[in-house]
Q: What sequence folds into this?
């Protein structure tokens, strides 16, 4: 699932010395401040459901 956004976030995190968990916490904090956390959660839950469905059908 790599894309330009992923690559840029990884570049910033690497430069700052953040691990993946720290980066995730910062993204979550930003989403909450922008009132986007519900949308992010719904989006991720949908992806998780689709993956579960894919694994169940395999």
A:
């Amino acid at each position: 699932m790599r894309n330009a956004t992923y690559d840029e976030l990884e570049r910033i995190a690497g430069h700052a010395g953040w691990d993946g968990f720290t980066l995730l916490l910062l993204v979550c904090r930003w989403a909450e401040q922008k009132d986007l956390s519900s949308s992010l959660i719904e989006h991720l839950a949908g992806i998780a459901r689709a993956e579960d469905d894919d694994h169940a059908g395999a």
